[in-house]
Design brief:
With 385 residues, the chain is an alpha+beta fold. The protein has one domain: 4-Layer Sandwich (Anthranilate synthase). It has eight helices and 18 strands. The strands form two sheets. It has a nine-stranded antiparallel beta sheet with strand order 6-2-1-8-9-17-18-7-14, covered by helices on one side. A nine-stranded antiparallel beta sheet has the order 3-5-4-15-16-10-11-13-12.
């Protein structure tokens, strides 16, 4: 990816520690970057996805919205495309005076980032896995998604912008973003999973689940029954959900097929449909989210079980992130392979689907492979110093 001049990079890094609400993002298979920035005022906080009907802006939605974590919508006062336009806008706004650093809104307190001993971390995961697996064996659930979080020391002279560029260069197939708000702090992500994209007429969502590792650049094809079943639950849920939405005509379906995401590959099914009312995107998202890809089956009961038993707050991990604009193009993704940036540490997130056939060691290794996506970005950023 072509990068801007040093002055622009400095402004971007300063913005990541400021009271300014903004997002950079890059769409899959492109080199061009977008900036969406809110010039002033508080970020808008919403209580439900349905409130996004008829709205425009950059969305950061948590796994579960409650009084502590709301759905955030960055107003698109500035929407700039490619570095010439982005640099021009940023220098006009901030060349003489960089935005005020927000010292009081550091959303990750250092005291919460205690270095974890690997054995202890795995034992905690094993204990949680047992709870999830037992509930499946007792026929309370068909599938549950178990996630975990780790804390990684941020390298000296860390640059959020360089991390964003590293993600763009390493993961061309994924949606890459760098988002900072006064309510969420700074997040960087690299996600392969569309929750809703399209504009005007044709809309698109996917069922993405099941995971294997790519070796020697060869896409594996020997999917296990566990992986096949895991993805099928997601596809069935999305198909049934779309049928309950006011659409025109039939659903066009493609897949399942193997879709690469970095060093991993997933089973994927595409769904295309036409909406009767393009101002109803919030209500569509409210029906789709959360899918079994990040929650479970049955969905409502699984969501309650996860909140009660997973052992930590997912925050904006496995929520929704991206651009909402029904007229000019919506690009909304499930917030996977992401990290929250603090002053000294980054919090990384990953998860995997648990079925009756799941084995704890295999599931642990799957989360390790997914965490490697963000670890690579941090390490590469460090190696450049």
């Amino acid at each position: 990816m072509i990068i801007p001049d040093i002055e622009t990079i400095g402004i971007i890094n300063a913005l990541s520690k400021s009271n300014v609400n903004f997002a950079f993002y890059r769409l899959p298979w492109t080199d061009a970057c977008y900036l969406l920035l809110q010039k002033d005022g508080d970020i808008e906080e919403l209580s439900s996805l349905s409130e996004l009907d008829g709205r425009k802006g950059f969305v950061m939605s948590p796994f579960i919205s409650d009084d502590n974590k709301k759905i955030l919508l960055i107003r698109p006062d500035i929407l700039a495309f490619d570095w010439d336009e982005i640099s021009s806008n940023l220098k006009t706004l901030y060349k003489k005076s960089l935005p005020e650093v927000n010292r009081t809104e550091d959303k990750i307190e250092n005291k919460s980032f205690i270095s974890e001993i690997e054995d202890r971390a795995k034992k905690e995961y094993e204990s949680c896995f047992e709870k999830f697996h037992n509930s499946i064996d007792e026929n309370k659930f068909t599938k549950l998604v178990l996630s975990r979080t780790i804390n990684e020391k941020i390298p000296k002279n860390f640059s959020p912008f360089e991390a964003f560029v590293n993600a763009c260069n390493n993961y061309p197939r994924m949606f890459i973003y760098l988002c900072h708000t006064t309510k969420s702090g700074t997040w960087i992500g690299s996600t392969p999973e569309i929750i809703l994209s399209g504009h005007t007429e044709v809309w698109h969502t996917v069922a993405l689940a099941g995971t294997m590792t790519v070796h020697d650049n060869i896409i594996p094809t020997d999917w296990s029954k566990k992986n096949i079943d895991e993805q099928k639950y997601v596809a069935d849920y999305i198909r049934q959900t779309i049928k309950k939405i006011d659409i025109l005509g039939n659903i066009d379906e493609k897949g399942p097929y193997a879709a690469r995401a970095g060093h991993l590959v997933h089973r994927k099914t595409d769904f295309f449909f036409h909406l009767k009312d393009n101002n109803s995107l919030g209500r569509v998202l409210d029906k789709l989210h959360p899918t079994p890809a990040i929650c479970g089956v049955p969905m409502e009961e699984a969501r309650e079980f996860i909140v009660a038993n997973e052992g930590y707050d997912r925050s904006y991990y496995s929520g929704i992130v991206g651009l909402l604009d029904a007229d000019n193009g919506t690009e909304l993704y499930v917030n996977l392979r992401c990290m929250q940036i603090g002053s000294e540490y980054a919090r990384l997130y990953a998860g995997g689907g648990i079925l009756s056939s799941s084995e704890v060691d295999e599931e642990w290794e799957e989360t390790e492979r997914k965490l490697a996506t963000m670890r690579k970005i941090l390490n590469e950023n460090y190696n450049k110093q």
